[in-house]
């Protein structure tokens, strides 16, 4: 047969001799994507437009290149996303000609299926719209960008994590994961959460993004922004509230290290305007990304564990 | 020591660190969580806010200094009971290497976790308390590591500062352990004993002043320099490429493209190689090795690629592409060693699913020939059943042929899972061949 000559959109021209940490992690992630494609009927990638899901999509496109991606995307939209993120999300979907499902927390609040929390934080409200979307679309495998280095409760997470019809995760009932043999069998109504970035660290992610020149949403690079300071974080005003009494708006050069619910995600002061500069900053940072900028992980030692049991990530 | 873990260096240096997968085994009482916490702490893999959280929690418990085990004991039940109930994965790096560490609990009822963690490990750190030496659990763990073909072992002799006669006790423990590991098939080069104090950091990242009788590397130095290999014995098999997925774009740009996607399990594949598709036996040639980053002249074990073949042959998921001249015979009836992970016992005649590589097929367990007695490292003939966490040798028959090697030749190509066809649970970790026999188990393997 004739071999199609091609110019790859990724084109890194690597030599076969080198096989460093990033190559090993990339090959492992690609292996996971292909396993799921081979064993499941209706996989979906959770895609928020954030850094980890952008990387997830980049790896998935590589795994099946030059064929189109055999999965659709799902975004559980809290309605409290920074507009730049939604814009970026839609741009990526259009560029790669992908299919995006959106589950909207706002719709659930509007028709009373969900109630706003007293503290206005919406991340915990994502669970029910997510599970409904999984049920309605009969998704049997759901890819997430979570990493095991992010938080202690996640250190125990498997690459293939079985969830019951309520989306629940029971740490004592997880399947042992042996060699690189992933067991995706499940009963009807159950689904499997799959985490291809399990073994990546934050630094691996940034080194890879810099090496591959993965383009992230502009929020991840330094830009001038009107922000106010709260609990040591630089917050953007928006429909999620702020600034409150005594919180002054000021224009600062900032960037986001993680992007989540606007009410709980803050920016850091930074002049890092491209991947290399961000990498240098992350590499010397003395704070992990969540500790610095995610208010919801500070709730309690066991907060994440409780939320995972409820079917959140 | 030359351990510059400056992360800026990691990020931007010209050196590209490789990745080593390691696991820990030992009991919580021996200080395992503290040792793992120490590895993270001393390689600067723990950042300020995590340290703050540990300091706060340590103060709340009324401790004098930071309890490094709190860096790793994650789940509430564990913190309450002070034990580790599941495999946890930790990440640390030096300028020379990145590490994925599977931290496995030591309790007997969690053998399945020890097996999970060790299945991918290239090196296992076994922990003993210097005051107790090599105990029954150390022998059990070492036997499981031997079974799983872990290439490198480190014995961390912990709490060395608390021993009455550190030098004499360390020498005795080293000798006992060497006798044990030789009997289980490791060479002396594959095993190292190090006197450490996880609590104070002696010989973990920094050389201890308190152990003048030890002139070997620190634990970190050793982890950075051991060979990055997956097999215990150097008799590697050739190419094994389990086909995961067939890539057929059928787009205007690629109307006739058909590639076979997978990860090279063992050996090397190169353009121009003559290969055989198994189990069909069809021969063809490697036309190209494709990746999204362009084509490669060759690919080694571990790399995910897409193979393009010279001939229009029938290949699908579950098939294996192997080197001509070193191709295994497809098998449907074979002997295997299993670690039973199911709550309900395994009995002869059980109908299960077997997943090997990328093929899942129906299987029947014919007989259970022997059970491994973990207590005294002997083999019990013809047991009635295998209970949870028990290891034994069985005979298996599969509905479709599998393309496997003996586990002692290839961990990738010799491993399989047994799966419950009803609920889908993973019921056994399986090793093709007589892994138990190769341990030469007799009561004499137990040092008096």
Structural features:
heterodimer, A: 313 residues, alpha/beta, six-stranded mixed beta sheet, four-stranded antiparallel beta sheet, 10 strands, 15% strand, globular, B: 448 residues, alpha+beta, Elongation Factor Tu (Ef-tu), domain 3, 3 domains, 23 strands, disordered N terminus, disordered C terminus
What features would you describe in this structure?
The complex is a heterodimer of chains A (313) and B (448). Helix content of chain A is 31%, strand content 15%. By secondary structure, chain A is of the alpha/beta class. In chain A, helix 2 (51-64) links the parallel strand 1 and strand 2. The longest helix of chain A has 19 residues, at 21-39. Mean pLDDT of chain A is 83; it is low at 1-9 and 295-307. Chain B has 448 residues and is α+β, with helices and mostly antiparallel strands. Chain B has 3 domains: 19-225, 3-Layer(aba) Sandwich (Rossmann fold); 240-323, Beta Barrel (Elongation Factor Tu (Ef-tu), domain 3), CATH 2.40.30.10; 330-432, Translation factors (Elongation Factor Tu (Ef-tu), domain 3). Chain B contains 8 helices and 23 strands. Chain B has helices at 7-12, 32-42, 48-60, 76-81, 111-119, 136-147, 166-183, 219-225; strands at residues 18-25, 88-93, 97-103, 123-129, 152-158, 191-195, 240-242, 245-247, 259-263, 268-270, 274-278, 282-291, 294-296, 298-300, 304-309, 320-323, 331-340, 351-356, 359-373, 378-381, 391-402, 415-419, 426-432. The longest helix of chain B has 18 residues, at 166-183. The chains are: A alpha/beta (313), B alpha+beta (448). At the A-B interface, helix 1, helix 2, helix 6 and helix 7 of A face helix 1, helix 3, strand 2, helix 5 and strand 9 of B. Chain B: Its EC number is 2.7.7.4. Chain B: It holds the Pfam family GTP-eEF1A_C. Chain B: InterPro entries: CysN_GTP-bd, CysN_II, CysN_NoDQ_III, G_TR_CS, GTP-eEF1A_C, P-loop_NTPase, SO4_adenylTrfase_lsu, T_Tr_GTP-bd_dom.
């Amino acid at each position: 047969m004739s071999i199609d000559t091609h110019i790859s959109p990724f084109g890194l021209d690597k030599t076969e001799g080198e096989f460093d940490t990033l190559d090993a992690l990339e090959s492992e992630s690609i292996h996971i994507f292909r396993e799921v494609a081979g064993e499941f009927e209706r996989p979906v990638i959770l895609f928020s437009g954030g850094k980890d899901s952008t990387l997830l999509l980049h790896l998935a496109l590589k795994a099946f290149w030059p064929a189109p991606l055999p999965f659709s995307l799902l975004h559980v939209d809290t309605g409290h996303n920074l507009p730049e993120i939604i814009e970026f999300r839609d741009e990526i979907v259009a560029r790669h000609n992908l299919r995006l499902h959106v589950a909207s927390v706002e719709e659930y609040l509007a028709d009373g299926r969900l109630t706003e929390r007293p503290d206005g934080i919406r991340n915990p409200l994502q669970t029910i719209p997510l599970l409904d979307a999984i049920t309605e679309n009969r998704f049997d495998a759901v890819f997430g960008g979570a990493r095991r280095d992010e938080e202690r409760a996640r250190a125990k997470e498997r690459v293939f994590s079985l969830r019951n019809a309520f989306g629940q995760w029971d740490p004592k009932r997880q399947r042992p994961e042996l060699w690189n043999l992933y067991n995706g069998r499940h009963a009807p109504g159950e689904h499997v959460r799959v985490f291809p970035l399990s073994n990546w660290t934050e630094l691996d992610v940034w080194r890879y993004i810099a090496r591959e020149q993965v383009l992230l949403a502009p929020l991840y690079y330094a830009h001038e922004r009107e922000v106010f300071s709260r609990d040591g974080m630089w917050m953007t005003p928006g429909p999620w509230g702020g600034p409150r009494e005594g919180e002054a708006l000021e224009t600062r050069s900032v960037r986001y290290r993680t992007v989540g619910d606007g009410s709980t995600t803050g920016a850091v002061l930074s002049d890092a305007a491209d991947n290399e500069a961000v990498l240098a900053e992350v590499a010397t940072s003395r704070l992990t990304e969540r500790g610095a900028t995610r208010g919801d992980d500070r709730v309690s030692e066991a907060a994440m564990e409780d939320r995972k049991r409820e079917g959140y990530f | 020591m030359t351990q510059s873990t400056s992360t800026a260096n990691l990020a931007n240096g010209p050196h590209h660190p490789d990745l080593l997968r390691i696991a820990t085994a030992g009991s919580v009482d021996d200080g395992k969580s503290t040792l793992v916490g120490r590895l993270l702490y001393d390689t600067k893999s723990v950042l300020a806010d995590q340290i703050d959280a540990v300091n706060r929690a340590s103060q709340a418990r009324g401790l004098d200094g930071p309890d490094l085990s709190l860096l790793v004991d994650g789940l509430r039940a564990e913190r309450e009971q002070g034990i580790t109930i599941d495999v946890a994965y930790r990440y640390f790096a030096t300028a020379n290497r990145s590490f994925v560490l599977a931290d496995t609990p030591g309790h007997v009822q969690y053998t399945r976790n020890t097996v999970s963690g060790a299945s991918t490990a290239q090196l296992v750190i076994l922990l003993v308390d210097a005051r107790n030496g090599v105990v029954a659990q150390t022998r059990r763990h070492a036997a499981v590591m031997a079974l799983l073909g872990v290439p490198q072992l480190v014995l961390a002799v912990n709490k060395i500062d608390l021993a009455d006669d550190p030098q004499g006790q360390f020498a005795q423990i080293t000798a006992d352990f060497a006798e044990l590991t030789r009997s289980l098939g490791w060479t002396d080069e594959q095993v190292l004993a190090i006197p450490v104090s996880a609590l104070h950091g002696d010989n973990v990242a920094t050389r201890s002043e308190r152990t003048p009788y030890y002139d070997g590397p620190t634990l970190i130095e050793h982890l950075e320099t051991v060979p990055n290999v997956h097999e215990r014995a150097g008799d590697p098999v050739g190419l094994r490429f389990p086909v995961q997925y067939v890539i057929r774009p059928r787009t205007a740009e690629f109307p006739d493209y058909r590639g076979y996607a997978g990860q090279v399990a063992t050996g090397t594949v190169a353009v121009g190689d003559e290969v055989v598709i198994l189990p069909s036996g069809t021969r063809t040639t490697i036309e190209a090795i494709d990746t999204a980053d362009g084509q490669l002249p060759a690919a080694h074990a571990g790399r995910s690629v897409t193979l393009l073949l010279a001939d229009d042959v029938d290949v699908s998921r579950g098939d294996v592409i192997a080197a001509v001249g070193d191709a295994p015979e497809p098998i449907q009836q074979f002997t295997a060693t299993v670690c039973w992970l199911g709550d309900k016992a395994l009995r002869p005649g059980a109908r299960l699913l077997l997943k090997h590589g990328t093929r899942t097929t129906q299987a029947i367990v014919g007989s259970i020939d022997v059970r491994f007695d973990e207590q005294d490292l002997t083999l019990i003939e013809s047991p009635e059943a295998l209970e949870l966490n028990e290891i034994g040798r069985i005979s298996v028959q599969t509905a479709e042929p599998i393309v496997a090697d003996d586990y002692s030749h290839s961990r990738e190509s010799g491993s399989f899972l047994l799966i419950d066809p009803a609920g889908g649970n993973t019921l056994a970790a399986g090793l093709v061949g007589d892994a138990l026999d190769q341990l030469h188990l007799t009561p004499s393997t137990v040092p008096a």
